[in-house]
Amino acid sequence: MSSALEAVVDPQLVDQWIGQIGKDPSATVPLLQAIQSQYGYLPRKAMDLIVQNTEITGRQLYGVATFYAQFRLKPVGRHLIKICHGTACHVTGADRINTALNHSLNIHDPEQDTAENGSYTLMNVACVGCCSQAPLMVIGSEVFGNINGAQAQKALRKHARAAEEVLPKPEKQTQAS
Ligand code: FES
């Protein structure tokens, strides 16, 4: 992940949360929620400040952060694309949506889920409750259902135009269908 995507952490803000929420281990989840709500993920710098200024150990903090799916340790893009991988979506081609969008966003590293320019993050999620539209993806609050890879790419381009985001130039023509 490019360090250019890392958030700039304000230590005073972290101090303020500690003052409001508390310093003992029972404050772990609320503190993590406050950090994630501010930055969209859990920046390393903020995590270090929590460990240095509370009674919560690094082991406790990272244990909780990695246990709950709601927390992320990597920077998140300006827009989140959720790709449903519930059973109905999985069997009808959710993987093809991933392949197509990875191509559109020039994401080739399995560890990477955010475009280098910080525009979009891809996230696989469990059933979102619209199985009759499988396979599908959700950008913001908009559901794009019954789509193949090419349609997912088209929806992404349309969203990017509306949001004035620049998509990377794909390195070669996609085979997505
Ligand atoms: S499995 Fe995708 S919406 Fe239910």
How would you characterize this protein structure?
With 177 residues, this protein is an alpha+beta fold. It folds into two domains: 3-67; 79-163, Glutaredoxin, CATH 3.40.30. It is 42% helix and 11% strand. A four-stranded mixed beta sheet has the order 2-1-3-4, covered by helices on one side. It binds FE2/S2 (inorganic) cluster.
Instruction: State the helix count.
Output: 7
Q: How is the CATH topology of the largest domain named?
A: Glutaredoxin
- Global morphology: elongated
Instruction: Please name the CATH architecture of the largest domain.
Output: 3-Layer(aba) Sandwich
Helical residue percent band: 40-55%
CATH C-level category of the largest domain: Alpha Beta
| Helix/strand order | HHHHEHHEEEH
Strand order of the largest sheet: 2-1-3-4
Question: What is the topology?
Answer:
Blueprint: H1 11-21, H2 28-39, H3 44-53, H4 58-67, E1 79-84, H5 87-91, H6 94-104, E2 120-125, E3 136-139, E4 142-145, H7 149-163
Parallel strand pairs: 1-2
Antiparallel strand pairs: 1-3, 3-4
Helix pairs in contact: 1-2, 1-3, 6-7
Residues 84, 86-89, 127-131, 134, 136 line the site of FE2/S2 (inorganic) cluster.
